[in-house]
């Protein structure tokens, strides 16, 4: 399992893309998708909602369990991925591509986001 080098990661297993015009894309990692099993339902934050880094902002339901989705940064939701709501299996099949979850205009970023190598070491431990 490889974690794309250009992304940053939270210890709650979300990834964050590079910021473009103040907006970053968020998803869950392949590690988290594999741990969840087959995702069958996704609840995302609504466009216009404010999310706070480290706080729950949605949930993912799989055949095994229900897991909270945590915001890796603080900001305003500018887009939710309707494709994932319509076809939750995208989270498993393409967690770093079509299975992204939402886009957020960042107003605050935590200091504890990990690089790909740090996240790989974190999940190996």
What does this structure look like?
This protein is α+β, with helices and mostly antiparallel strands and 125 residues long. 20% of the residues lie in helices and 35% in strands. It has four helices and nine strands, in the order E-E-E-H-E-E-E-E-E-H-H-E-H. The protein has helices spanning 30-36, 82-86, 90-93, 116-124; strands spanning 8-9, 14-16, 23-28, 39-43, 50-51, 56-62, 66-70, 74-80, 102-108. A six-stranded antiparallel beta sheet has the order 1-2-3-9-8-5. Strands 4-6-7 form a three-stranded antiparallel beta sheet. A hairpin with a 4-residue loop joins strand 1 (8-9) and strand 2. The longest helix is centred in the C-terminal third of the chain and has 9 residues, at 116-124.
